[in-house]
């Protein structure tokens, strides 16, 4: 049996498992009555511990067919301006319950298209956040950048507010692939954007790529990797295209017949990964790459790599405050998700209520399983000693599952009393292995495929 056949037999091409940017995953969250949990969690924050802040901007000028993000198309700024006002009111509600002195260690603007905001709105939003949660020394401010929706004035405004990390959406540079996913973005436009970001002093750049797109083949993805290497990003995220038209109606515009098959898709991911490794990037977790010395690479080397809603991170803040429609906050006690639809979110805020409508209170078992899954997703290694030290006898509840993993995944893992380690050949099924520890399998939810 070849290695591919072995992985196929283990469900590589059939399994639909979460990406585990949280545990439990968002589909498990249950409706919340009232905002008591969110209010208490915010009020209980320790001002000595910096927090992360995420702001969701759910607007795009174009709606790319492949994208499953929560966003809406707009050709005018009027809904964006109105949303900005709602964000300011949400911040005011947060200010009323937050203890004095809480500082921001990180801020991330995602979407949607944060760079749809013109310079004056960038300053207004950044100023509103900083007035409620001032930045801590050495804070990081990252923004998702759409190269077709940004100019020097917007970059200057973001840099002026402290942006020091930019994440550039690329996906694929091939014109045929771009046309097939409804996202035209010439290489020259992206290159100019990268130059403008560097000229503005943005030291750290991330490039987002996607494999498994329609018409992608080895020559096309290889050419895209060549072009990306010329841009010399510090980090690369290489996500598998998740074809979930039952979740994202836009994806019905994608020609399914042009999607690469199982084997082709796997080869695309392996080819791109090999090219980045050969170019000197360190492989980080299941789908990221980073230059030696980059914060993500250092975190991976020293066992400090973590998962959050953006994927892999070296963020050490224990609390994430999510603002805006659909944003998720993470507290020591559990998760809270704001109303997903922009109108419902705005209605809550206008009624003077925090916008959390769903959530999950973490049990000790959730914390144990969440850490186990995070270890496998980040380090390909379940450190049983760490779990015993942290969770005591509760950690033994994982042992039957660990034994089953050894039985099922045999030569792809090694098991000792200290650790369960996924070997290099098994990295492609790390998500499937990690999902063995998931005790919350929501009914009726269909995740994207494991590779
Ligand atoms: S890829 Fe970006 S620009 Fe395109 S629809 Fe998604 S969020 Fe909007």
From TrEMBL:
Q: Which reaction does it catalyse?
A: coproporphyrinogen III + 2 S-adenosyl-L-methionine = protoporphyrinogen IX + 2 5'-deoxyadenosine + 2 L-methionine + 2 CO2
Ranges where the Radical SAM core domain occurs = 45-282
The lineage's top-level taxon is Bacteria
Q: How is the cofactor bound?
A: Binds 1 [4Fe-4S] cluster. The cluster is coordinated with 3 cysteines and an exchangeable S-adenosyl-L-methionine.
GO molecular function per UniProt: coproporphyrinogen dehydrogenase activity
On assembly, the entry states: Monomer.
**Record-listed E.C. numbers:** 1.3.98.3
Cofactor(s) this protein requires: [4Fe-4S] cluster
Its protein name is Coproporphyrinogen-III oxidase
Report the source organism: Defluviimonas salinarum
Q: In which pathway does it act?
A: Porphyrin-containing compound metabolism; protoporphyrin-IX biosynthesis; protoporphyrinogen-IX from coproporphyrinogen-III (AdoMet route): step 1/1
Query: Would you identify the family this protein belongs to, as annotated?
Result: Belongs to the anaerobic coproporphyrinogen-III oxidase family.
Which InterPro entries does the entry link to? Answer: Aldolase_TIM, Coprogen_oxidase_HemN, Coproporphyrinogen-III_oxidase, Elp3/MiaA/NifB-like_rSAM, rSAM, rSAM_sf
Q: What's the chief localization of this chain?
A: cytoplasm
Gene behind the chain: hemN
Compartments annotated for it: namely: Cytoplasm
Supply the alphabetized keyword list.
Answer: 4Fe-4S, Cytoplasm, Iron, Iron-sulfur, Metal-binding, Oxidoreductase, Porphyrin biosynthesis, S-adenosyl-L-methionine
Query: Which is an annotated Pfam family here?
Result: Radical_SAM
Which top EC class is given?
oxidoreductase
From the UniProt record, list the coiled-coil ranges: none
Q: Keyword Iron-sulfur, does the record have it?
A: yes
């Amino acid at each position: 049996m070849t290695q591919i056949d072995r992985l196929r037999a283990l469900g590589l091409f059939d399994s639909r498992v979460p990406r585990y940017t949280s545990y439990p995953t968002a589909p498990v969250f249950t409706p919340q009555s009232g905002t008591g949990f969110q209010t208490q969690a915010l009020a209980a924050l320790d001002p000595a511990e910096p927090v992360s802040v995420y702001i969701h901007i759910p607007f795009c000028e174009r709606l790319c067919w492949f994208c499953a993000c929560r966003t809406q198309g707009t050709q005018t700024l009027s809904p964006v301006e109105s949303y900005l006002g709602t964000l300011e009111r949400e911040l005011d509600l947060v200010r009323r319950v937050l203890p004095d002195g809480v500082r921001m260690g990180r801020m991330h603007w995602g979407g949607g298209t944060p760079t749809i905001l013109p310079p004056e709105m960038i300053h207004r939003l950044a100023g509103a956040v900083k007035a409620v949660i001032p930045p801590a020394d050495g804070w990081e401010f990252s923004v998702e950048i759409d190269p077709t929706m940004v100019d020097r004035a917007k970059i200057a405004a973001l840099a002026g507010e402290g942006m020091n990390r930019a994440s550039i959406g690329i996906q694929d540079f091939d014109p045929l692939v771009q046309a097939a996913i409804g996202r035209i973005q010439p290489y020259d436009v992206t290159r100019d954007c990268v130059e403008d970001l560097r000229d503005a002093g943005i030291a750290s750049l991330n490039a987002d790529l996607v494999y498994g797109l329609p018409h992608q083949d080895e020559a096309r993805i290889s050419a895209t990797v060549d072009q990306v290497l010329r841009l010399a990003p510090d980090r690369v995220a290489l996500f598998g295209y998740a074809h979930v038209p039952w979740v994202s109606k836009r994806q019905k515009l994608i020609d399914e017949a042009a999607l690469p098959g199982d084997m082709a898709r796997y080869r695309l991911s392996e080819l791109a990964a090999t090219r980045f490794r050969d170019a000197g990037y360190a492989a980080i977790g299941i789908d990221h790459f980073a230059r030696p010395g980059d914060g993500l690479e250092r975190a991976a080397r020293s066992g400090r790599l973590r998962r959050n809603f953006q994927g892999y991170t070296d963020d050490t803040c224990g609390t994430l405050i999510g603002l805006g429609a659909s944003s998720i906050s993470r507290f020591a006690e559990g998760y809270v998700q704001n109303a997903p639809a922009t109108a419902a979110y705005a209605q809550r805020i206008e009624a003077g209520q925090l916008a959390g409508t769903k959530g999950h209170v973490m049990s000790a078992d959730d914390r144990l399983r969440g850490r186990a899954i995070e270890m496998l997703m980040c380090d390909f290694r379940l450190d049983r000693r760490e779990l015993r030290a942290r969770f005591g006898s509760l950690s033994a509840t994982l042992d039957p599952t660990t034994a089953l993993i050894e039985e099922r995944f045999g030569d792809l893992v090694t098991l000792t009393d200290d650790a369960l380690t996924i070997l290099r050949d098994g990295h492609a099924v790390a998500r499937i292995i990690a999902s063995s520890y998931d005790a919350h399998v929501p009914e009726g939810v269909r995740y994207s495929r494991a590779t």
